[in-house]
Design a protein that fits this description.
The protein is built from 2 helices and 4 strands. By secondary structure, it is α+β, with helices and mostly antiparallel strands. The strands form 2 sheets. The protein has a two-stranded antiparallel sheet with strand order 1-4.
């Protein structure tokens, strides 16, 4: 499911790194404090990272 609008935000990340391993476009980068940062130019909003996050830290916003 690829959504045409909206974006994904990071809130409450516990730094497990699962999201970075599932992203097919390498749109999730690691910040200095080891949290994911989304490159919105690469993200196609496939939602794999949102679905795999055990802490519900990735949220789709319209």
């Amino acid at each position: 499911m690829v959504l045409s609008k909206g974006y994904i935000v990071v809130s409450g990340c516990k730094k497990c790194g699962r999201c970075r391993t599932v992203c097919p476009n390498s749109a999730l980068k690691r910040t200095v404090d080891d949290r994911p940062k989304i490159d919105h130019d690469l993200c196609d909003r496939c939602m794999l990272c949102v679905r795999c996050c055990p802490n519900k830290a990735l949220i789709y916003m319209e």
